[in-house]
Amino acid sequence: MRIAVIGAGVAGLATAKVLLQAGHHVQVFDKSPDVGGVWSRTRRYPGLTTQSPKAQYALSDLPMPKDYPEWPTGAQVQAYLAEYAAAFGIERVLRLSTEVTHARPGTDGTWTIETRDSTGTEIQWDFDRLVVANGVFCEPAVPSYPGTEEFTAAGGRLCAGTEFHDAEDARDKHVLVVGYGKSACDITVPISEVAASTDVIARQLLWKMPRKVGGVLNFKMLLMTRLGEALFRYIRLRGFEKFLHGPGNGLRRRMINSIGSVSVRQFGLRRLGLVPPGQMEDIVRGAIGLATEGFFEGVAAGSIVVRHDRTIVRLLAASGRPFAELSDGTTLPADIVVCATGFTQGVPFLPEEVREQLLDERGNFMLYRQILPVGVPALYFNGYNSSFFSPLNAEMAAVWIAADLAGALPLPDTPTMRQAVVDQLAFMDIAMNKHHCHGTKIIPFSLHNVDEVLGDLGIDIKRRTRAAHWLNPVDPAAYRHIAPAALARNKSYDPQAGSGPAPAGDTARAV
User: Are residues 150 and 278 in the same domain?
Assistant: First the structure.
């Protein structure tokens, strides 16, 4: 089939590789000039590193270079993904610096795609299927502050974190970083090393995981195992999880919250006045983030000031200089305001009637297995399953898509799938206090998602390997055989069992 993939990040590349191996005709579109998605040089901010260690963030069939640090930089991840594209022949189907402006479904189950490249050239394409892999972090959400025009006229700069690329821009300036998630803390550290002042404006404090608990034990030994994931209650309990959330619930809570106690001592949070409310098990209700190296040290040294439980209420100018007023009445000099305030999950290229079917009344994505929009034919999503194991989740989703294209995936009927999505979102509302990015963030249920996808495929890793992953960090390389096994089995099915027409001729034409 002729398949369009929107996005050349981790999910887009994994999808392209699997579908090429399945024999499909693939085109990958991305408006950035390079592959990588969030790791693109157009979006990298100073201090950007992975949250997961390199072994866990790698794709199953290409390990990261041995000389990479445990938590690679953004530039290193982008180079790795470029290597992945070259190694698996994806480069030849890439159309970079090319934005998809419209994607319209046809009456015959096909899709018409309109694109615009960096020269302004517009082209219209015909495809049998469409995979949206533009990412859940595609568009930064920058607050709209009163007084912005006056602020910028006085020389102030308001930008998203992904638009701030060089720490030198902050030299000798007064900088406010809005947010307290990982990206906010990451970008704060290099800014604080050169700025005249660096203030973090945090609406609320969040729990942070030490990269090394007690300065010794890598956090992946605790939370990147099947046991670590089992500490958080899932919608369906299996095996040992029933004990942990039943008779062993007290033990389970002590295991999680003891990490919080260690974090408080390790970072001196009580002395710094930065102990988050609640307990460490509440980390899933906000944002599971690693503590940035040097952040709390900067707070202790005075180079970083955290103003928590406050927001910016307006930007202004006084005596020709830019300032920001906080919700407590404080006014701070603010040459630069960097907003690390999250992202929107946008699909502006899809027509309104498709978006109405795709989203519920709250804007949540109605995706079965985080992949299939219920009731919208010939359309798939990948990468809408942000997790600690995002590359692995994306790979397994790509295999699922290939199986469905081959007619080799037995699925429930539409009402059953829709109800499953509704139930999942209701559960995530409770488990994550609605902080699930409109249904696209599955931390800390990454492996449950993998297991459900593989359950549909009827394929799994060896039981002995699964058992080892209960106490040891999950190794994506253990899933290396899944795609070849599934694709080989798909060949026993008639490819025409899919509902789309066979590939035909040149699919591009000038608009």
Answer: yes
